[in-house]
Amino acid sequence: MRALSVSALLLLALGCCWGTQDNFLDEDVVEPVIQASKFGSLWPLPQKVQISDVPLKLSGTTFEFTDAKGSTAGASCSLLQSAYRRYFDYIFGGPKKQKMSRNRRSGPSEVTELQVSITSPDSQCDGYPGVTSDESYELSVDAPLAVLKAPTVWGALHGLETFSQLVYEDEYGAKTINSTKVSDFPRFAHRGILLDSSRHFLPIKVILANLETMAMNKFNVFHWHIVDDQSFPYLSRTFPQLSQQGAYHPYTHVYTPADVKMVIEFARLRGIRVIPEFDTPGHTQSWGKGQMDLLTPRVSPAPRRPAPSDR
Ligand SMILES: *[C@@H]1O[C@H](CO)[C@@H](O)[C@H](O)[C@H]1NC(C)=O
C-alpha cells in the first residue's frame, strides 16, 4: 500500500541505486520478470533476500520493537525509539495502544517481537549519516522472534523499512509476514534528490513529505538547492536583508533558522544528510536586492559622441 505513495520521480531515479538482480539466494529465480517475481514486494531490492512460503501473523496488540541485550544503542537512543513508533504506525495504521487485556495471547505462528541490535561500538545514534557510513543490515523474520542486526543506526533504519515492506494483509485482512532472511547494503554511497526552493518556494511540509518518501526508498542525501538568482528564501540572522528583499515574500516564503534546523533533524532521524547549496559568484542575482554593492554593476556602453569632424 505504501508503495503507492512513492512518487514517479523517485521510482525513475532509483532503479539504479541499491540492489543488483544477479545475486539472489534463490538460484532458480534468474529472470527478473516483474509480475512473476516473488520479491516484488520489496523496493529497492535487497542484495540478498530469501522469502519463504511460511506465513506468520502480526498483531498490533502483541507486537513490539525491542532493543537486544548488548545493543550499543537502546532505550536511550531517541533516533531508534522514534523510528520504532513511526514503523509501528506504518505497519498497523496507528500508534501502539497500551496492552489492554492480559488474555490476548499470541498464536503459535505469530511474530511478537522485532529485536534490534546495533553491533558497532559507535552506533552513531547521535551523529549524522555521511558518505562513508555503514548502512548494511541483516534481517531474519521468524516466529515469535524477528531479529535485525546492523553495525550502525543507519543500517537499522533501512532494516526497519524492509521489515515494514514485508508485511501484507491476507485474504481476511490479517497482518501477515512470511518467514524471511535478508542481507543488504547499498550499491551506491550517495543516493540523493535535489530540490530547488529558489525557483519555486517549497513549503516546509512539502520538503518533509519528500524526506519521508526518500526514506521509504532508502535515499540518503537531500541536496537543498536553497537559493539562486530567482529568490533568496534563506533567512540569515546576520544578513536579514537578503531574504527580506530577495525572497519571493519576506515572511511567508522564507526558511527561518528553526525551519532549517527542523529539516536537518527530520532528515537525520531518517538516515538522510542535508547538503545545502549557496552558489557564488554566479547565481547571486537575488542577493543583490538586499545587499548593496555586492554585485558588479553592468556598465552600459557610453553613448557615442559625435566626432569633431562630424560637426
Ligand atoms: C508468502 O507465502 C505465501 C503462502 O504461504 C505465498 O503464496 C507467497 O508467495 C509468499 N510471498 C512471497 C513474497 O514470497
Automatic annotation (TrEMBL):
Gene3D superfamilies found in the cross-reference section: Chitobiase/beta-hexosaminidase domain 2-like, Glycosidases
Swiss-Prot/TrEMBL keywords: Cytoplasmic vesicle, Disulfide bond, Glycoprotein, Glycosidase, Hydrolase, Lipid metabolism, Lysosome, Signal
Disulfide bond keyword on record: yes
UniProt keyword Cell inner membrane present: no
Location of this chain's protein in the cell: Cytoplasmic vesicle, Secretory vesicle, Cortical granule; Lysosome
GO BP: carbohydrate metabolic process; ganglioside catabolic process; glycosaminoglycan metabolic process
Bias-annotated ranges (Polar residues): 112-123
Signal peptide: 1-19
Family: Belongs to the glycosyl hydrolase 20 family.
Record's protein name: Beta-hexosaminidase subunit beta
Species, as recorded: Oryzias javanicus (Javanese ricefish)
Lineage, opening ranks: Eukaryota, Metazoa, Chordata, Craniata, Vertebrata
